[in-house]
Write a structure and sequence with these properties.
Blueprint (H helix, E strand, L loop, with lengths): L3 H47 L5 H28 L7 H7 L4 H38 L2
Helix pairs in contact: 1-2, 2-3, 3-4
InterPro entries: CENP-S/Mhf1 (IPR029003), Histone-fold (IPR009072)
Family: Belongs to the TAF9 family. CENP-S/MHF1 subfamily.
Keywords: DNA damage, DNA repair, DNA-binding
């Protein structure tokens, strides 16, 4: 037989789990709303540029497709990192995820190269500044 204390603990546990699940559901709904809003704004902007209108149903379909594709990308990224025995997603994981779309893959490759170049420039600048500081310190008594 279960004691009243263990029954109460079990009920409290279930209530906490339900609350946590409700909170996760609210977060998911807020995220979906944000994606829907952003897709709506993008469709509005594109529509203005091309003198076209997007129906609410089309915007909703694009938003849902976008949300699902992002979920697939996130799961793929996690799987690639886990397969490489890492807990952090790398640029190479992103490139692997984009490999099915030539345009997306090319875009990510270009951005990756731009970021790498900018990072190298920052490192070079820091080295120059650090080198100048050392030279200045050596001259001063």
């Amino acid at each position: 037989m279960l004691s009243t204390t263990s029954c109460r603990a079990n009920v409290n546990f279930r209530e906490k789990m339900a609350t946590a699940m409700d909170e996760e559901e609210r977060k998911l709904q807020r995220l979906k709303a944000a994606v829907h809003y952003t897709v709506g704004r993008l469709c509005q902007s594109i529509g203005e540029d091309h003198q076209k209108e997007f129906s609410r149903q089309v915007i909703a379909a694009i938003a849902e497709t976008t949300f699902r594709q992002c979920d697939i990308f996130a799961k793929d990224l996690e799987a690639f990192a886990r397969h490489a025995k890492r807990s952090t997603v790398s640029v190479e994981d992103v490139k692997l995820t984009a490999r099915r779309s030539t345009a997306l893959s090319n875009f990510i490759q270009r951005k990756s190269e731009e970021i790498a170049s900018a990072n190298q420039e920052q490192r070079d600048t820091r080295k120059k500044i650090a080198g100048k500081r050392k030279n200045t310190e050596m001259v001063l008594p």
